[in-house]
Structure formats: structure tokens, C-alpha cells
Design goal:
27% of the residues lie in helices and 15% in strands. It has 541 residues and is α+β, with helices and mostly antiparallel strands. It has a five-stranded parallel beta sheet with strand order 3-2-1-7-20. It has a four-stranded antiparallel beta sheet with strand order 12-13-9-14. Strands 4-5-6 form a three-stranded antiparallel beta sheet. The protein is globular and about 70 Å long.
């Protein structure tokens, strides 16, 4: 099969890239390994991590259309209260991590609606569930990618003048021989204050397999997981307690903090202030990433809130899942950790009344697209998220690599982040690194609102492969800021527009960056498409 643009990976970056290329009139092949498009927002079940100004500026117009579409979907189809329906900035879950906490299936519906006209016209062909297994190259160009069906093994050979890697782990980089980096770079290479003296390529951020629960009458306790005794006793040296507890390090201070857990606290959704400048919002784990607040809906519609579990105790950092002999075995171990967390919550977690266990917690696999809500007290183990939440990818060796000194608030101060002449977007998030496979604790550094340089999207050698997700030219450190939902979308959108621009002008991405006239024309094209290139005068956090 062939098209003008081949996008391997249907996460947020992949969908944004496809939409950009399709709106430009290009034909697109889009592949995705899992059953849902949308990656971290859907199959990984992670509510959007966004900056404090997201409702006003700092994201692309198409990302804002996605957010607006999610809210409109609730208004049109869900039994919202009148108060909730009238709210412009509706937060369906009233979660503290985001101003738009919602059920992942809603995002799937909106993304599919955005892509729908192009599927109908035949200019977009989506191949699911397919994953890349091989690639062919000719010198510095990728000539084709082979993908295999996840279940049947059926193989397809796909070709296009431009190939975009929007996979969660940069799967095309080793397959195509594109030079890349993993894990920590050395301080000698990057000059970053938070980097180690020596490079640590196998030291990568934890992955997490998320899941959703509600709290309803009955005993919904799952079978005891096979690895439960191991995880129950597991005590990381920096954790301050057993990992299966409500005690863990505060990411910003590293002081040991105790979080609460109160299912269905009957709080007022209108009093939730989801602002990372004020608080990370993780004091009560139930409301931290809540994706359905029952008081936003007509009484009787929801028997319980729905809580999305993506908490510190879910982080799997025993082994990396990239460039290891059997990554599926590590993901299976991460799933076993998640089931152990659920079983611990149901049977042993301390309650405020002095008792232990919350057997009325029910795994909501129907919410994550992996199972059915229990009706008679039985819950299957298929109810975890479809895909693991991958925080860190392989990263291209790029024409420009973003380093800590470019955006650290402590280093940059009131100067703000470095402003790049080749800016192709903006983003904002603290440098937020979870515990890693090398035994490191959190690294959490205040950040300035930053720009996305085009140089970070251009491999040093390969000419027609573009990164379209977390695989751009960041370091292990700065990946912590550039890995979140709106930035991944911005990167993907730019990659799709860049492929179209290069096809139309018959130039290479490298030429666009290094030719002032071409760069100015491309940046004007981005601005016309609703991609913000600069921040107003605001301070970081």
C-alpha cells in the first residue's frame, strides 16, 4: 500500500499529523497497534496534563478543537446537570490534574469524528491493529515499512515519500537505522545540572498501566494476582515505606508524603481548582485524576464517580521496556503491579475508620475498552488500560537538542526560556521525571513556558523520516516537559504540515530549517494553521 504520507503510530501525535496532512490535501496511511486511536489520552487512559493557561492560549487551534469537541460531546449526549451544561470550561470529572478530566472513550469518539470525512473520501486509510516490524532504506532515505497485524501476524508493506514515526517508543528509529538516544545523557555531553556524570542509556522513566474504578455496593475483589506477595513486600530505598501504601516521595520536594483516599467524597465539582501552579492536586488520590464526577450528572445517572488510577505506586521501574530482549515481559510485569495495586486497595489499604480494604471498588474495564462492568460482583482482569503509559521514548539525534538550560526556571529566571529562530510551536510543563529504572528518585524542576524548535524534529542524517511524538530531539531531562498531551499534538501537527510543505516545494526538511526564506514561509504557514509560535510575557512555575 502507498500514500503521500505514511504515519506509523496513531497516538495524539499521529492523529494530529494525519489531520494536518489531510487538510493540506494529502493521502495518508495511518497505522496503530491498539484498538483505539489517541495514545496517552485514550488507550493509555491518561487525562490530559496541561499548563495553567490552556483555556486561553498556548496550544494549537486543532488541539483546542479537540478539547472543545470533548466538551460538546458531553453536552450533546450525556445527562449533565443544567449547571454543568451551561459551564463553558466544563470539567466532566472535576479532577485536580486537569481542567478537562474525562472518560477516554469520549476522546476516541471525537478523534474519530475529526478523521471521519477523510476516511469517507478514501484519502485516509487506517490500519489497526498493526505494529511496525521491519523497514527498508536506500542511503539516507526510508523506502518502506512493514507492519504486522497484532493478532494474525498478517504483514503489509507500506511506502510513502515521507514517513512519520508517531509510535510511543520511537519504533522506527532502530528499524530504519536512524541514529537515536535512550535514557540519561551525560553532563559532559549536555551540560545539564540534573544529568549524571556518565551517560546511562538503560536508565529510563517508569511506565504505568492505568485502570479505572468506581465504588458501588457489593464485593468486587479480584483474584489475588500471582505477583502480589512480591509487590506487597517491595520497598524502594527512596520510597519511605512499602510501595503499596499511601506514602511516597513528594515529586517536588522528595519529602515523604502521605496521601488520602476517600471514594466518592461527595465534593462540589465547582470548587475544584485544577491548576498546577497552585497545587499538583494529588492530596486525595480519588479526586486527583477523577474522570467522572457524579454530581456533574443528573442524579441517578452515575452510581459512583469514576476514578482513573495513575498514582505513584503504579510506576514500574524494575526494567526498561525499550531496547531489551523481551519488552512484552516487562509490560506484563507492569500489568501485574497494577493488578496488585487494585487487590491491595480492595483488601489491605487503610481506611479512615480504622478498617482495611475497599472491596466495593469495581474495576471498570468498559471505561478503558478492555472489559465489561460487573453486574454480579465478578470482575475480569482484562479491565486495565489497553496500552501502557510510556513516558519516555527513543529520541532522534537531532539537528538541535533541547537541554535543561533552555527552559529551567532556576537557570533562565525572568529571561524566560530560550527563544528559537526556528520555533514551530509552544508548550509548558514542569520538567517532571518519574522514578527510573536506574534507581533514581523523582526529578522535578520548575520550567519556563518554552518553544519547540524545528531543529528538534530533523534527524541529523535521514532525510524523509520525521518524529511525530515524544521521539524528538530532547534529552532525558527535557523530555519530562515535552512529553505531555498538547506538546505531542503540536509536534505531530507540525510534522504533518512539514511533510506537505516539503512535497509541495520539492525541498527537504533540513533545507526548510537552514534556508531563511523557506523557514519564514513555513512558519507563516503554521501561523495560518493556528499554531502558536511565541508566548506572551508570562512567568513559569
Amino acid at each position: 500500500m502507498q500514500a503521500e504520507v505514511l504515519i506509523v503510530g496513531g497516538g495524539l501525535g499521529g492523529v494530529a499529523a494525519a489531520l494536518a496532512a489531510l487538510r493540506a490535501g494529502r493521502s495518508v496511511l495511518l497505522t496503530e497497534e491498539y484498538d483505539w486511536l489517541g495514545g496517552q489520552l485514550t488507550s493509555q487512559a491518561v487525562p490530559p496534563d496541561e499548563h495553567s493557561w490552556v483555556e486561553r492560549f498556548g496550544v494549537t487551534a486543532s488541539y483546542r478543537a479537540l478539547r472543545d469537541g470533548i466538551r460538546e460531546h458531553y453536552r450533546r449526549w450525556y445527562p449533565l446537570t443544567d449547571r454543568a451544561r451551561r459551564t463553558t470550561a466544563l470539567n466532566p470529572g472535576a479532577g485536580h490534574v486537569s481542567r478537562l478530566c474525562h472518560e477516554p472513550r469520549v476522546a476516541v469518539a471525537v478523534l474519530e469524528a475529526m478523521l471521519g470525512p477523510y476516511r469517507g473520501s478514501g484519502r485516509l486509510r487506517v490500519l489497526q491493529p498493526y505494529r511496525p516490524v521491519a523497514a527498508e532504506t536506500d542511503g539516507d532515505r526510508v523506502t518502506g515499512v512493514t507492519v504486522a497485524h497484532r493478532h494474525t501476524g498478517e504483514r503489509l508493506f507500506l511506502t510513502a515519500p515521507y514517513v512519520l514515526d508517531a509510535t510511543e517508543t520511537g519504533e522506527l528509529l532502530p528499524l530504519t537505522g536512524t541514529e537515536y538516544v535512550t535514557g540519561f545523557e551525560s553532563r559532559a555531553d549536555t551540560g545539564e545540572p540534573s544529568a549524571p556524570e556518565q551517560a546511562q542509556p538503560t536508565n529510563m522513566q517508569a511506565v504505568s498501566v492505568c485502570f479505572a474504578v468506581d465504588h458501588v455496593d457489593g464485593d468486587h475483589t479480584i483474584d489475588k494476582p500471582a505477583a502480589y506477595d512480591f509487590w506487597r513486600a517491595y520497598r524502594p530505598p527512596f520510597w519511605g515505606d512499602r510501595m503499596l501504601s499511601f506514602r511516597s516521595p513528594n515529586p517536588r520536594t522528595l519529602a515523604i508524603s502521605e496521601r488520602s483516599f476517600t471514594p466518592n467524597p461527595d465534593d462540589d465539582p465547582w470548587l475544584v481548582q485544577a491548576d498546577q501552579r497552585v497545587s499538583p492536586g494529588d492530596g486525595n488520590l480519588w479526586t486527583f485524576r477523577r474522570i467522572a464526577a457524579r454530581r456533574n450528572f443528573v442524579p441517578g445517572s452515575y452510581d459512583s464517580d469514576i476514578c482513573l488510577v495513575n498514582w505513584p505506586m503504579l510506576d514500574y521501574f524494575e526494567q526498561p521496556v525499550i531496547d531489551v530482549p523481551d519488552p512484552d515481559a516487562q509490560i506484563t510485569a507492569a500489568r501485574e503491579l497494577s493488578l496488585s495495586v487494585l487487590y491491595w486497595l480492595q483488601t489491605e489499604a487503610p481506611r479512615a475508620d480504622g478498617g482495611t480494604g475497599f472491596p466495593s471498588l469495581r474495576l471498570r474495564g468498559d471505561v478503558t475498552g478492555t472489559g465489561t462492568a460487573a453486574t454480579g460482583g465478578d470482575v475480569t482482569h482484562s479491565g486495565l488500560a489497553q496500552a501502557p503509559y510510556i513516558r519516555e521514548s527513543r529520541r532522534i539525534r537531532a539537528e538541535y537538542t533541547v537541554v535543561e538550560q533552555d527552559l529551567s526556571l532556576e537557570i533562565r529566571g525572568d529571561k524566560g526560556a530560550v527563544s528559537y529562530a526556528d520555533s514551530v510551536g509552544v508548550g509548558m510543563y514542569r520538567i517532571d521525571l518519574h522514578p527510573s529504572t536506574g534507581g533514581d528518585n523523582y526529578i522535578d524542576v520548575a520550567s519556563c513556558p518554552f518553544e519547540i524548535p524545528l531543529g528538534a524534529l530533523i534527524p541529523r542524517r535521514v532525510e524523509n523520516l520525521l518524529p511525530a511524538g515524544k521521539n524528538i530531539g530532547t534529552t532525558h531531562i527535557t523530555n519530562g516537559s515535552y512529553r505531555l498531551h498538547p506538546v505531542e499534538w503540536n509536534v505531530g501537527e507540525v510534522a504533518g504540515l512539514l511533510a506537505d510543505f516539503c512535497l509541495a516545494r520539492r525541498v527537504t526538511p533540513r533545507a526548510v530549517r537552514y534556508t531563511p526564506g523557506l523557514l519564514a514561509d513555513f512558519q507563516n504557514r503554521l501561523a495560518d494553521s493556528g499554531v502558536e509560535l511565541r508566548w506572551p510575557d508570562i512567568a513559569g512555575y
